[in-house]
Amino acid sequence: MDGEAFKVWLSAVSDLTDQQRSAGFRALALAEAGYPEPVAADAGIQAYAASASAALAAPGPGSPEAEPVAAAAARRVEEMGCPHCGGRSLQGWGQSNGLPRYRCNGCRRSFNGLTGTSLARLRKKDRWAAQAEAMLAGESLAKAADRCGVAMSTAFRWRHRFLQAPALDKPGKLVGIVEADETFILESFKGKRSGLPRPARKRGGKAAKRGLSREQIPILVARDRTGHTTDAVLPRLSRAAVTAALDGVVTTDNQLCCDGGKAIVGFARRQAIACSILPKPGGPRPEAPNLHINNVNAYHSRLKEWLRPFHGVATKYLDRYLGWRRSLEALGDDREQQRWLGAAMGMPVCQQLTR
User: Which of 82, 140, 263, 289 is the most exposed place for a label (fewest CB within 10 A)?
Assistant: First the structure.
């Protein structure tokens, strides 16, 4: 098209209807992405209703290793709609960096399946499936870096970008009988090279004092009989800290079971929640065999055994590791690359029933 023809074409833009402008925008975006598609001048917008439709972003050209990423991203768009406004009326808008793009007919903004997630703008998507496998297996950074073929610094950055969403994925409310108990994990300044308040330990190390002390960080875990689990790293073991962690999650509709810890009992009494205090080590009473904290104690054991190969977790990252373990428990036997990638993209897994 020569200059004069372009001027004539441009002068007629103001006469286009809204539908025609949308179709024109789409054609320009597809042409810029390298996928030209003829669109009739009076073509309307083909809206996408968020459903299980194969038209939703079939993975574009790319390596087979990147297909789980594209599939997880497409499923996120299908389930959650537009990340900007939550709209469900979407249309294809070309492709970029191996992922389909979409345009929301509501807010008129474009996006891909990673927009608004912690994985946005990360590169080397063809290696994310290997990263997901490493996280499902609970591998160390060195093993994960070797599996993915990346540097240790990249493996570290990927791990914490992949853990940002699972750290926030907690059930909004527990149901029925709820078991609550605290456990303690040794405080760690792993990765900090200066300004330590004490001499550095090696490979996790041991506490200077036996039993509980300020070196131990309290971890609160509450779990119902369906498998829903919530947890929190407490600044200190107090009623206020327990209330901040469980307020609205454990309510008067629940029957709370605990071993008599003052912080948890104080929370239950202040919230008027029925609380059963069990004899140590938390086993049931003969008259109420269904009231116990065996499930939450077993969860503590699994959590600490899973953390052991890491040889100490930095306290500032402990909440992310709790989310990691919580997501693995929620996935159960359904530990597939695509499910973990979806969890890393912000699709919740901890609200489902678990074994």
Answer: 289
d(CA 53, CA 42): 25
Where does the pLDDT of residue 45 fall: very low under 50, low under 70, confident under 90, or very high at 90 and above?
Answer: very low
Q: How many structural domains does the chain have?
A: 2
pLDDT at residue 279, as a whole number: 86
Task: Report the DSSP beta bridge partners of residue 219.
Answer: 183, 233
Residues 201 and 307 in one domain: yes
Contact between 249 and 241 under an 8 Å Cβ cutoff? The reply is no
Specify whether 80 is located in the same domain as 186. no
Please say which residue of 112, 139, 156 terminates a domain: 112
User: 49-97 pLDDT, tens per residue?
Assistant: 433 333 343 444 455 667 889 999 999 999 999 999 999 999 999 988 8
Q: Looking at residue 264, which CATH number applies to its domain? A: 3.30.420
Structural domain contains residue 337: no
Q: Which tokens belong to 35?
A: 């996928």
| Boundary residue ending a domain (72, 91, 112) | 112
CA 322, 324, 327: angle at the middle one, nearest 5?
Answer: 105
Q: What is the mean pLDDT of residues 12-30?
A: 67
The predicted model gives 230-235 an average pLDDT of 96
Reduced to 3 states (helix: H, G, I; strand: E, B; else coil), residue 206 is coil
Residues 6+ apart with CB under 8 A from 181: 220, 221, 258, 259, 261, 264, 282, 293, 296, 297, 300
Query: What's the burial of 84, exposed, middle or buried (CB within 10 Å: 0-12/13-18/19+)?
Result: middle
- The proportion of the chain whose per-residue pLDDT surpasses 90, expressed as a percent, equals 62
Does 157 map to a domain?
no
Domain encompassing residue 255: 177-313
Q: How many CB atoms lie within 10 A of CB 195?
A: 6
Residues 195 and 104 reside in one and the same domain: no
Residue 280: predicted pLDDT: 75
Average pLDDT over residues 308-326: 94
Whole-number pLDDT of residue 257: 96
Mean pLDDT score of the chain: 84
Amino acid letter at 226?
T
Whether 295 and 180 have beta carbons less than 8 Å apart is answered as no
Position 321, amino acid: Y
